[in-house]
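User: I'm new to structure prediction. If I give you an amino acid sequence, what do you actually give back? Let's try with this one:
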Amino acid sequence: MDTSDQQQLGRTFEAIDQFRCQARDAAGARCMVLEGRGKTGAVRAYLAAHTPVEGMGGATGGPILYLPVLPPATVAGLTAALTAEVFGTQDSAPRRGAYTGGLHRLVSALRDRAVALVILDDAQNLGLGLSNRLVDANVDWLKRLIKGTDVPVLLVGEGAGIAAIMGRDVALSHHSTARVHLAGSSTGREPLPTLPHDPDGELARPRR
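Assistant: Good question. You get back a string of structure tokens that encode the predicted 3D arrangement of the chain. For your 208 residues, that looks like this:
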């Protein structure tokens, strides 16, 4: 790895750590989008460098969960696959009617195990090739996951595709998202803002 790559990796690590710190604040961002060239490699390096210390728990010591979003993405499949990651099992097959109960179990497990970060790779697949109804269901799943756990979520993937998905929910897009763009051998980073608290409580309000 040459010096420029090392510098890019260092800046990417710094951006993710900054995002995680901001996410502890009630007014901080809860989602971050990582896009551009080399994003998956950067995420894997981050995972390797941030193996949790046994028994530490909390935001810095808890586990980091990595889940590739495989098409076609459905709420049942996402819930089952992420639950399998939490419990370290291979039982990731979606079950009929498992969304509500399964999501409740997943949210409880993420809180109880003090998960520090959830990484969804190829996150553009939350909307790729799906009907509007299914895309909206996936966005709702993501919002419920965030508001139910306060665990920061890193969305890795094609920026325009993720932006189109996030733009379907105003509260999620405008009150919870920061973005980091990797460009070749250098990192162009938009500032990670301390976002204002949602005045209408959209992230805390169940969707009817």
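You can read the tokens as a compact description of the fold. Here is one thing that stands out. Residues 26 and 197 are 7 Å apart (CA to CA).
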